[in-house]
Every structure is written in structure tokens, then in C-alpha cells.
Write a structure and sequence with these properties.
Order of helices and strands: HHHHHEHHEE
Helix content: 55-70%
Radius of gyration: 16 Å
Strand content: 5-15%
Structural class: mainly alpha
Shape: globular
Length: 116
Amino acid sequence: HRINSMAKSSSFSSRAAKATGVLDYLQKALPKQRLRQLYAHETRGHYVCRAVLQQLPGVAQQIVIRLSCCGGTFTQKGVQIWTKQQFASYQHELSRWAIIEEITPAPSGDADKTKI
């Protein structure tokens, strides 16, 4: 049991050592689940969200703001309309920050959705 926790710690340490600043650390060293927990933190979450939002390109910032106003879930086609078909170029950046994730369409035939 101790060996497994050491391996996890070692992997995390190597990723953390490669980070050059706080935002780099958040993006590269932390697992996405932990980053999402920071976003949702009661007292510090809004600071983390603001810092990350400020690092995003202007169009990516607008995607995040619009998705947050839509209740967190929206079709990719709708987002592509907002961004004039440039969503693909911002999708990777938003995914790296654990801001969006793909949702598998329901068997009812719903279109792909993007979730924040």
C-alpha cells in the first residue's frame, strides 16, 4: 500500500517540478479533478476562476462566460455559431484548464454537448 502512494506522489512531484509558475502549476501539475475542486471551492474558487479566465484568449473567455450563463451545458454546434466555426482552436485550451469536457450523447439522439 505504501508503494502505491509513493508512486502517485513521485508522479505528481515530477509534474510539479516542471511547472514554472502558479498558473503553469494549476494547468500542468494538478489533475483535472483537483482543478475542478479548486474552481468550486467556497472561499478561494472565485479567485482561481478569475485568474484562469484572465489567462484565456478573448474568444475563449467569451465561450466560458456564455456557457456559464447557459447553465453549464450547451451543444458544440451552438458554441461554433458564437465563435464563427473557430471553436476547435479554443476547445483544446479550455479542456486543458478543465473548463469544458465532452458529454457522450444520450441514446435519444441529442447532439454532442460541451459542459463546463
